[in-house]
Amino acid sequence: MPDRLSALDASFLYLEDAATPMHVGGVAIFERPREGFDYEQVLCLIRQRLGYLPRYHERVLTVPGHLARPVWADDVDFDLNYHVRRSALPTPGTEVQLFELVARLMARPMDHERPLWEVYFVEGLEHDRVALITKTHQAVVDGVGTVELGQLILDSVPQPCEPTEDNWVPRRPPSAAQLLLDAVSETVQRPGELVENVRAAASDAAATVDKFTDAVGGLATAVRALVRPAPAGPLNTHVSGGRVFAVVRTRLEDYRRVRDRHGGTVNDIVLAAITGALREWLVSRGENVVPATTLRALVPMAVLEPGVEFSSAGLVNNQLEPHLVDLPVGEPNPVLRLQHISHAMRAYTDSRPSVAARAMLKVGGFAPATMHSLAARTARSFSGRIFNLVITNSPGPQMPLYAGRAKMTEMYPVIPLARNQTLAIGVTSYHGGVYFGLNGDRKAVSDVGQLASMIEESLSELQSAPW
Predict the structure, then answer these.
(1) Which segments of 245-333 does DSSP mark as H helices, in order?
(2) How far apart are CA 353 and CA 303, in angstroms?
(3) Does residue 231 share a domain with residue 141?
(4) Do 223 and 147 sit in the same domain of this protein?
(5) SS3 of 212, please?
(6) Taking every annotated instance into account, which residue ranges of this chain make up the domain O-acyltransferase WSD1-like N-terminal (predicted)?
(7) How far apart are the C-alpha atoms of 116 and 138, rounded to whole Å?
(8) Partners of 61 in the β-ladder
(9) Rounded CA separation 299/259 (Å)
(10) pTM of the predicted structure, to 2 decimals
(11) pLDDT > 60? residue 204
(12) Fewer Cβ in 10 A, N or C end of the chain?
């Protein structure tokens, strides 16, 4: 039987266009060790780990006439050097230049004739640092058979990469005739899928994507029917093909101090800091902000099925459920903003057991890379009309990790934009820091750097707020 894409995975391909490429990214910054850390070592490391990720050797084959969903097949022309690319900043490269490069790379759709992932090794960053920028299509990372590459190339101890032979031998891909034969055989068994497959691949894909949301459970459908449209505003306009990217560095200890003083969880405080920043950002743009003004965030969160322990293998047994949270941007008091958010999040966690941060930290490798990919997939199951922005937050290990001998110092998620949604924010904690990646549309949110600085100011406001 062919390895056919799931309905949800196929929808990511059908709905992708030049303005909204559907890949998730990450930016990891490393200290270059005394022994060096170069492109050849990155190639060695990735080559060594690809055996654990068969999907990264596979490309998508479209069925003639779209009589069935596409299939996965080995790429007989697989070229590791195509996927792992070398880049450099003008020495000494600044972080502004690095993040501009990130924005340009993330704006480019990937070649569907090849496996749907890319890694960029970026040299020349000031203070003798290098960066790895990853791009992985949302159709690839399902958390079941395939995790994000960034979860496998990082280790808890520094170790050199020993060159190994690449013994991978591609299987012969199915011919067009075989693809048709398999499609016809499946259509005989499930004739209703033929109409949906043709419609999904045609111009009315957006109208049929609702059929695909069953792949992430019935919650999305239920919420879609019950929730009112999201408030109008600058975050929901036409998305262009350009991107801007900005980051925020904060310390985990600051969130713990706010938690000890004002209550809530670290995740609540992250959302409150973002809420305060969005308030100031709207005001700076001349938007009408009144006490009742809200913005709605879609916040995917990991939940546990009853009796299931969260584990690295258990990503398949756990779910990411999308929570819609009204952020009280109209509330001028930072503590009251936090209390509103804590109350809203508590209503979700009381109704369904969420995965505690300490449980997620047991997952091997850098699990946030996979969790952000799964969160982006979950967000895409919703109509963009019912939320203003996506916010994903995944805790990472509080110990240093290494790619080869190079120590990772920072990591920023890059969450993709959906149609008519001009801002997405990913948050990851790692080794005492909390790192925000803000991905914005270049036309609609050109001032994303200003918004990033406002997040720092909003957190400071929470820290200094009286009881």
Answers:
(1) 252-262, 266-284
(2) 6
(3) no
(4) no
(5) helix
(6) 5-270
(7) 9
(8) 71
(9) 20
(10) 0.87
(11) no
(12) C
